[in-house]
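Most newcomers find our protein records easier to grasp once they have seen one. Read left to right, the backbone structure tokens trace the chain's path through space. Once this layout is familiar, the rest of the handout is easier to follow. The record below serves as our worked example for the rest of this section:


***
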Amino acid sequence: TGVLPEKKAYAELGNPVMWLNIMSFVLASMLVATGVAKRFALWFILKFGKNAGSIFLSFMAINIVLSAFISATTAKAAILLPIFMVIAAIYGARGGDHRNNFGRSVVLQNLLYINIGASGFLTGSGANLLAAAIIGGAIGGNIFFSDWMMAMFPMMLIMMLIGYWLAMRVFFPLTPAERLPQIEGGIERLKSEYAKLGKVSFQEKKSVVIFLLILAFWSTDKIHGISPTAVAFVGAIIALLPRIGIIQWNEVDIPWHLMLFSAGAYALGAGFAATDLPSIGVNAFFDHIGIGNDTPFWVLYLLLTGVMVFSALLFESKTMRAMIFVPIAIGVAGRFNLSIISLALPVAFMIEHVYVLPFNSKPAALLYETDHYSITDTFKYGFTMMVTAWLIIIIAGETWFKFLGITPNGVFGIF
């Protein structure tokens, strides 16, 4: 169409965010191939999952840890699915005609934690990275891993705890019978799976050390200035080195079709930037409906964050939502002479709320196949959490985000 030169469009395959995605899949494959992720999940459940309530809290903790290291929500779902399915069976939930509230709760809570866990970290998903790259390009700077985590980790934790309370107390309360194991010795199945892993191998220890070093560099990126992509690249190279490495290329599971889709989305974003289409569209829209430049900030904040979170009901791709709504937020900020960060970053924080309907995300589709819950179950629980998340981000805009300097009149001002 002549919007971009071919060379510039194709160059999006070399976008740093693309490489960070690829390297993250290499590192996630390392955790899976060595068995570290499975070992950690089984150990945590066996150590702390002493009763029905603590099992759910254990999965919350597991998801938080995995979210810090694995940037693919589908990979987290694949790792945890066999474990919580076994636990569901132990507590009498086998899906279909044998559904019970334990099964509904353990699957839907994990679906919630898998997605919300990704919101707490810049590297939690490729869509987060894309949104940060778009915002960084607009402000002529960087959105750091440490800044994102400082802003969103407390919000992520609050949303998870509310999700736990709503599931256990309101939507899927457990009867006394559902709180007790229905299969005698069922927990022994998990113990045998854990025993099969044997002693912690040298390869597992190496993978843990690599990941802890990577997380340390990511968390301190504002201090040393090394990009998350460069850090992940070095870690992946070490993991793939002959003889001293941990995995081989044929053990790495990279969804190249998603990578090509992402590159196309980035090229579309470059086209938006070249034509200034988001700003043109925003100005035309506000002129048409007669909203003037004296519109209060919080009206715009409520509108943009609400549109972003509820758009997840219609869109299947988080990447496309980031591509569409983050530039719109940037355009709105430009029209009303507001800080780009104040509108675009809170919009980006709402990317991961894709747990209401089975087509909203790949983890949602995967977990729906367990047949442990109905569309009604997932909608009433998920939609309530979606509204709750929006209210929390509104409250954060007046409190925590203002303190950090994201929204106007901040007193701390890290952004």
The mean pLDDT is 82. The two ends are 37 Å apart (CA to CA). DSSP finds 20 helices and no strands in the chain.
